[in-house]
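User: I'm writing a short report section on ligand binding and want a predicted complex to refer to. Could you take this sequence and pyridoxal-5'-phosphate and write out the structure as tokens? A short remark afterwards would be nice.
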Amino acid sequence: MSRIHLSKADVTEVEEHYLLDAVRSGWVAPLGPHVDAFEAEIAARVGVTHALALASGTSALHLGLLELGAGPGTAVIVPSMTFAASAMPVVYTGAEPVFVDALRGDGNVDPGLLMEAIDTLQAEGTRVVAAMSVDLFGRCAEYDQIVPGLQERGIPLIEDAAEALGAAYHGRPAGSFGAAAVFSFNGNKILTTSGGGMLLSNDPDLIARARYLSTQARQPVDHYEHTEVGYNYRLSNLLAAVGRAQLSRFDGMLARRRAIRQMYVDGLSDLPGVSFLGRDDESRGDDEDNCWLTCIVLDPAVTKVSPPQLIAALAGEDIEARRLWKPMHLQPVFAETRSFVNGQSGQLFDRGVTLPSGSALQDDEIERVLKVLKTTLAVAR
Ligand SMILES: Cc1ncc(COP(=O)(O)O)c(C=O)c1O
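Assistant: Sure. The structure tokens for the complex follow:
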């Protein structure tokens, strides 16, 4: 029996073919035709006019934040329930992150608390330059409330859609909300370049400046001239080729993640005390969620099994599962950071487990996971 991973890269001979093409073309550099085409193809898919391919989602967030004015003496609102890479780039800029807690149903940022945080900080005289949303585990945040609330307050949105390529909110694609948005193409994501990311915006100047900063802030003259500090953040042409191969297969990979979610839902429906993160809102069907990772939430009043116990049982059968993100306001590195907490993200961390969800997983592998889940959760009731 082979090991079942959480979200292993789904690569085929299509990726091999594109990669070989890039190597043979001689464009073995952080620029080239595959980079240009990858930017254009992702932008078209998301319905945004401009895109910049970068070395990681983290570097895309860094540049996006800089462009929105994050720096010393400013604050940026960040959802607490996320991977640390949402918050770290805020610190790189010299700005202070301020964390906001989550909605119980899907773990995305609580829009009411987000607005409360901005109003409180502004009333105290803090310069809030941007608010970040995270489309958690591939499910969009509540943009019907977030977008108008931020517009009213004149605060630009940066959308961390690192996990959410292919997701949508009431028909509008993830990555199209806000002044700037970010995707990650890390090895565990729904579409991967092994490592990589992208910054998207409808503002050509924002992307042009980020492009300039991403190439060491070189002035457009015939010698090496620099008037400010830049970064080396571009994506390799080889990796962009892999990304384009993945994009050519993307609809199939997306459908497979959704089919895997459905297998879990069908397989666990009669287990009391088990619910699925992000399935509480009838108006937002699974077809809008990219189902990057399927997460279950265990109700301690009904099942005695804890997330660590369940993860250990799965590990015993060579199956990888993990806890949900540990909220940023509970992280030692951010112990001194201001936060607006309602308890929901902490509860999801205590109760949630992410299940193997990679699009290369076969039905018999999901059955193997389901068998362990059912036996473990049934025994302890
Ligand atoms: C929510 C979120 N933001 C940002 C990132 C950072 O992306 P990357 O790993 O490409 O730097 C990730 C994933 O790693 C993520 O899950």
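A remark for your report: The CA atoms of residues 135 and 161 lie 5 Å apart. The chain has a mean pLDDT of 96.
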